[in-house]
Amino acid sequence: MHAWPASEVPALPGQGRDLRIHDTATGGLVILDPGPVARIYVCGITPYDATHIGHAATYNAFDLVQRVWLDTKRQVHYVQNVTDVDDPLLERAQRDGIDWAALADQETALFREDMTALRMLPPRQYIGAVEAIPGIVPLVERLRDMGAAYELEGDVYFSVESDPHFGKVSGLDAAAMRLLSAERGGDPDRPGKKNPLDPMLWMAAREGEPSWDGGSLGRGRPGWHIECVAIALDHLGMGFDIQGGGSDLAFPHHEMGASHAQALTGEFPMAKAYVHAGMVALDGEKMSKSKGNLVFVSKLRRDGVDPAAIRLALLSHHYRADWEWTDQVLQDAVTRLGRWRAAVSRPDGPPAEALVEEIREALANDLDAPAALTAVDRWTARQEQHGGTDEGAPGVVSRAVDALLGVAL
Questions:
Q1: For the purposes of burial, counting CB atoms within 10 Å of the CB of 172, is it exposed (0-12), middle (13-18) or buried (19 or more)?
Q2: 81 annotated ligand-binding residue
Q3: Omega into 252 within 30° of 0, i.e. cis?
Q4: 235 among the known binding-site residues?
Q5: Which of 30, 91, 292, 364 has the smallest CB count inside 10 Å?
Q6: Residue 260 CB: number of other CB atoms within 10 A?
Q7: Residue 45, annotated as binding a ligand
Q8: 359 is in an annotated binding site
Q9: How many Å apart are CA 210 and CA 231, to the nearest integer?
Q10: What would the pLDDT profile of 18-35 be if each residue is shown by its tens digit?
């Protein structure tokens, strides 16, 4: 599966700072020093309703991570998946009377278009669950053969008790886990499971649903968590720098994935930091496919909204915050974009070197994009009020905002 084209990232003078970022597993900031190649895995979409603002906010956060690392002169090895077969996708395809694979292709193509318009840097590998099945099957067989998985009526489940570190990603107790498991795709009440929290690794073929050859597992399809584990281990290996996604993935997805990988390899941890973006609401409720209260990037673009304004709207909220999308949020972003573009269109302006360092410091401090925007606002206000004599300043600001914030002025 191919990703989307990369926008050019302008080179800036000097060098960025190492990233300090909030790690869900420890509950505090960690300083990441990845070495010459930073490794990040971000969980992708299930392609049946792309791309809503909640998606965009999540991928914007991890785009900032890439930009901070690139500014430190590192390379970035970024991997993202597409869950192109799963129950919600099959249910939507059946509801709409469309082939499930065609629906997945259609929505994935739309996602690529939106990511390109928003100037999100693409992953080096963009892997669908279906194409990953040949790598998933051997992992499930290994877990079964080593006693970390078991069969139940043809399905294969992972035993969470096989990983002594289970629970260390989310930090939740068993009761909270059980509630979230039921809400987020698990089946804690299924009779015969060794532990209600045990997640499915391989679902035996069901009538009327797609299935693949699973070798000794029989025909079926993979569970949600093992999909990402197989892709991450194949392309990044254990101990990569960041496992990322929305905050609703901390449990069960990232918790289970970490345990799968740790049981398979005997190593801990799967990732050095688990980083989660906040949820976006609309009309007082979390924006979600199940509620149908979605604002789509593609619809905004069709309505003539500049993608740079959409990106500024996302950047105006801290990535870990839960926030609400409103018409005012978008209008404020449109106004800000207009002011910034007018400011950098002048032939000279106030010196900009200190501004570049302010943006760098803000982003290195747990991706504090709102602080970075405020710094650019201050420079813009000086330009509007007094102008300046530095002929290179507007160009420096334009390149810094592009390179570090992904906003083309």
A1: middle
A2: yes
A3: yes
A4: no
A5: 292
A6: 30
A7: yes
A8: no
A9: 21
A10: 999 999 999 999 999 899
